[in-house]
Amino acid sequence: MRKYKRGEIFIFVNLGRATACLDKKAVRLQAAYVIGPVQNPADNDKCNSDLYRIFKKGPIDLENRATVSLADGRSSECRFHCTIGMESLELDLTGYELKEGERMFLVANINSAEVKKIYVRPFDVKGKIWINGELLYNDSGPFRYRLQQGDNTVVIEYAEVSKHYSIRIRDTNLDRFFNEELIGEFMEQWIENRVCVVHETANALERTRYEFYLLSCDAVGVPNGSPAMIIVMNDDGDVVDRFETAIGRKVVYDTAGVKNRTRTMLHIQIEYADLGSRFHEKSHVILVHPLGELIESMELQAEELERTDRCSADDLTQLAGLLERLRAVNVLETNKLTAKRLCLVKEYKRLFFGACGKLLEGRSYENAIAEQRLGDGFFRSKLDDSIERYTVLLPSDYSEQRTYPLIIFLPVGRYELDLPDFRDRLYAYWNLEAIAVTFSCRGVTMGSYVGEAAFLEGLDVITQRFRVDEDKIYLSGYSNGAYAAWALSQAYPDRFAGIAAYSGGADPDKLINLSNMAVLNVCGEEDYAIETSYTKPSEVLGGDDYKGILEPDSNHWDTPYFHHQLSGIRWLLQHKRRTAPRRIHFRTDKARHRKCFWVEIEEFAEGSHYGEIVGEWIRDTTILIQTIHIGQFELTLPDSVKIGHLEVIIDGQQFTVQPGEARGLRFRKSGDVFVWLPPSFALAHDGITSNGMGIMDVYMDQVRIVVPDRYSSEQERLDILKVSDVFANPKTDTWDTNIYVHYPILQSSRLTDEDAARCNLICIATGVGRHDFLSRIVGHLRIGLHADGFTADAGFEKGDYCILFIQPNPMNPAKKLLTVFANNSAFFKRNIYTRKLIIPSYFSGFHPYLNKEVILFNGKLRAMELKHGAEEHQRYNTGSGDYERDSDSNNQ
Fold first, then answer.
1. Of 142, 224, 353, 518, which is most buried by a Cβ count within 10 Å?
2. How does residue 878 score in pLDDT terms, banded at 50, 70 and 90?
3. Hey, which bits of 456-610 come out as E strands?
4. Span of 28-42, 155-169, 653-667, 866-880 with lowest mean pLDDT
5. How many Å is the maximal CA-CA distance in the chain?
6. Following CA atoms 749, 752, 758, 763 in sequence, which dihedral angle do they give, to the nearest 10 degrees?
7. How far apart are CA 546 and CA 501, in angstroms?
8. How far is CA 505 from CA 123, 791, 844, in A?
9. Which residues, including other chains, have CB under 8 Å from residue 328's CB and lie 6 or more apart?
10. Compositionally biased, Basic and acidic residues: which spans (predicted)?
11. Which helix (H) or strand (E) holds 212?
C-alpha cells in the first residue's frame, strides 16, 4: 500500500471545525466534511487502499471549498455536517441516500495530546476507514492503531448509509482499566494480531486473475509491510502453490496454472508473524469450478440413502435442509458469493458425507455432529411446515452417557451466527463443558407470540436431540435477542437457570419474576434504552445472582461484540436452576404465562388485566401468600417438603393442611375471601384461555389459514386472498418488519380432520355457506355471523361489519380458532387489522386491541372480551371494558 510521509498526511487541511479531541473518554466523530454522494471512481475497487486513487493530490482546504476534485478529473460537492443522532450520538446521516455505484466520504480529524494506542469499534459501517492515509477498515470489524501526537486525519468511505451505526474510538489502556476481563477477551478475539482477507467476490469461475487484499486489524501488533506466506491447496489438502507477499498489500493471483488440480475450490492459507514473533494463520477460499457438480453428487447420494430405508424422516429432513442451503449458495450472483459462503459449503460438504456414513451404519445425523463437534441441524417446523435450522457446538468430550448445560444464543434478526461464524469465533475457544446453540425466533419478534412459539419449538428439538441438563439452560442475547431473553425468562421463571442480556430492555413490571434467576446484564451508559435495559433491572434485582456491567461512553450499538464472550458464559454456568425456592414473586398479564415454581395463577380477579402473587415458606410449617388481582390459584407443595401440620396464610386468612392432604391445593376468591376448593374440583375451561393474549393467541402454535371454496364474485375472492396473505405473513414494527413465517393457506374442503384437530385455525370468509368448515361448526361459534348483521353478547346488531374473534377450536378445545369475517368484503379494507397485521411485543405490555378476544369494525373500531356461557368456567378475565376509536385512525 502507499506510504504517506509525516507532514503529507493527508490531502486535507484546515479541519478545525471537524476535530474530536481524544482524552480520557471515548470519542465519536460528531462533525465532519461530507464529500458526495458521487459515482465511485473507477480505480476505487474493493481492494483499493490508496486515497490518491479517489482524490486529486492536495492540499485541499475543505473549510473554504464547495467542491472537491477527484482523481479521475470529476468534482464532488462538499459541505460541513454536524447534526447528531439522538439515539447513537453519532453523525446523523439519514438525509443522505446512495444510489447504485455511488460513494460518500466523511473527512474529520482526531487530535491527541500524545502518541496513543487506540482501538476503534465500528458497527454497521459499510465501507472503508483510513487514518493518516492508512487503510484500517474495509467491512472488516474492530481495529487497533497508534495515533500520532497532534492531528490525525480520518477519512470514511460509505458504500451504504445505515441509520443505526457506531464508530467508538477509545484509548485501549483506559478501556482495559475499566474491565480487563471484558475488554481483554474482546481484544484477543477481535483485534490482537488479526488479519482479514478483503475480496470483492470469492467467485473466480470466469476469471484467472483473482484479487484479494491482506488487511491488518491490528496495526500495532501486525503492521503493514509484515511478511506473509501464501500457501494454496486443493480440495484434498495437497499444496499446489506457495509464494510470499506482505500484509497491507493487494495480491493478484493467477489461478490458471492450478485450478485444474482441484475439483471445486482453492484453499488459501496465509501464514504471518506478529511483532512478538508469534506465528498466526488465516484461511481463505476461492471457487474455481461450478458447485453444481458437487451438489449433484450429494443429491444422488441422498437419494440412494432414502432408497435403503435406513434413514428416519428426521434424518432425511436434515439432509434436505442442508442441500437446500447449498443450492441457495449455488445461485448467488457473482458479487454476492463471499468466502464465508464458500466456507459454509466446506462445512456442509464435511457434515453431509460424515452424516451419510453414520446413516449407512444405522446411526443418526446427530452422531455426525457429535463426531465433528460442530454442525447445522434441521427440523420441519410444525408452526408453518418450513424447514428450520440450528447451529450447535458440542463440548470436546460430548457423550450420550451424561448431560450438559445448554447456552442458547438468541439471534438479533432472522438468524445471527452462521456455521462459519461458530467455527471462527467459538470453536477454537470453546473449552467449556457445555452445549452452545442458536436457532431462529423468526425475526425481530423480541421473543413474543410467534417468537415465543418458535423458541419453545426450537428448544424442544434441541433437548430431544442432545443430552441437555434441564437445570442448566441459559439464554443469551444482544438487542432484540436480549429483549427476547428478558421476555422469555419473565414468562417462564422456573424454566431457566440464568440469562445474559446485552443492551436489551426488560418489562419493568415483571422484573420481580426473576428474583430466583441468575442475570448478567451488560449495557452501554449511552444506550438510548438504558432505563429499561439497565437502570430498572439494577434497582429491582441484586445480590450474587445479578451482575451488572455498565460500559462508559458506549451506545446501544457498541456492545454486540461482547455477546459471545466466554467470560459471561462462565459466570452463568456457576448458577443452577432452583426447583423449589423459599420465596417467589410473580406477575403476569398473559394466560399462557401463569406458573412460577410452586404457584400457578389460574384466574385473574374480574376486571383486572394482570395478577400478582408473593409466596414465602416460613420454615416448613407456614406458607405466607399475598395476592393482587388473583381470582384463583393453585399451590403445589414441592416433593422435598414433608407434609406435616402446615399453615397456609393467604392475605391474612389462615388454612390448616393436615398430614396426608394432597400436594396440590387450589384456592378461589369468593367475594373478599378465599375458599379452599376440594381435591375433586376440576378446571372446567377449554384448555388455555386467550385472555391476556387475545387475537394473538392463535399464533402460539401451528397454524392453518382456511379460506372459502366458493366466492360470490371475483372481487370477493381477491379481497379474501389479500386478507389471508396478511395473516399468513404478519409483520413487526421494528428495523426488520418481516416475521419469517408463511402459514399454509388452503381451501376449506382441503382441510383434513387431522389438521382441523391439531392446528390453530384462522378461518376467513364473507359467507358461512361458502366456507365448508365454518358451515360444519357454525353452531359452535361464539358469535353469530349473518348476511345482515351479527349476534353477540349484546344481541343482534344490524349492518355491514368486519369482525375478528378467537375461541377454542370446536374440533379440539386445546387449540384455537380465529374467525375473520365480513358480510361485505369491502370492510376488510376498512378494518386496520385486516389491512395489515403488526404483531406487538410483550415488552410493550397489554395491547388494547390485539390482546382482546374480539375486534369489531362497523364504522367504528372496538375491542372487547367474549362473555363465556354459563356452562363454562370463566378464566383469566382481563376486563370487560371496550375500547373505541374512529374508523380512520391508523394508530396501532
1. 518
2. very low
3. 468-478, 498-502, 518-524, 546-551, 583-588, 595-596, 599-604
4. 866-880
5. 95
6. 0
7. 11
8. 20, 42, 10
9. none
10. 882-892
11. strand 209-216
Three-class DSSP labels, 815-853: EEEEEEEECCCCHHHHCHHHHCCECCCHHHCCCCCCCCC
Which helix or strand (DSSP H or E) is residue 481 part of?
helix 480-491
Task: Residue 299: count other Cβ atoms within 10 Å of its Cβ.
Answer: 15
Answering whether pTM is above 0.90, one says: yes
Nearest to 513 by CA among 594, 441, 629: 594
Between the alpha carbon of residue 450 and those of residues 454, 589, 702, 739, 870, the distances in Å are 6, 17, 10, 8, 32
Strands (E) across 440-534 are located at 468-478, 498-502, 518-524
Helix 450-465 and helix 480-491: axis angle, to 10°?
A: 80
The DSSP bridge partners found for residue 117 are 146
Mean pLDDT of the 48-62 span: 90
Helix (H, G, I), strand (E, B) or coil at 64: helix
**Mean pLDDT in residue range 197-224:** 95
Q: Are strands 102-112 and 19-22 parallel, antiparallel or unpaired?
A: parallel
Terminal CA-CA length for the chain:
54
Neighbours of 293 (CB within 10 A): 11
Long-range contact pairs involving 337-341 (C-beta distance under 8 Å, separation at least 24): 337/201, 337/202, 337/203, 337/287, 338/199, 338/201, 338/202, 339/197, 339/199, 339/202, 339/284, 339/285, 339/286, 340/418, 340/420, 341/202
Question: Three-state SS for 525?
Answer: coil
Separation of alpha carbons 746 and 708, rounded Å: 9
Strand intervals (E) in 564-720 = 583-588, 595-596, 599-604, 611-618, 622-628, 630-636, 646-650, 653-657, 664-670, 673-677, 703-707
- Rounded Cα gap, residues 503 and 509, in angstroms: 18
Residue 709 is placed in which grid cell? Answer: 371454496
The alpha carbon dihedral of 511, 514, 515, 521 has a sign of negative
The residue to which cell 370477493 is assigned: 716
**For 203, which DSSP code?**
B
CA angle 586, 588, 590 (to 5 degrees): 150
Q: Model confidence at 20, in pLDDT bands (50, 70, 90)?
A: very high
| C-beta of residue 839 within 8 angstroms of C-beta of residue 696 | yes
Residue 323 grid coordinates = 442441500
Alpha-carbon 694 to chain mean position: 25
Torsion angle, alpha carbons of 502, 508, 514, 518, to 10: 20
- Report yes or no: 505 and 606 within 8 Å, Cβ to Cβ: no
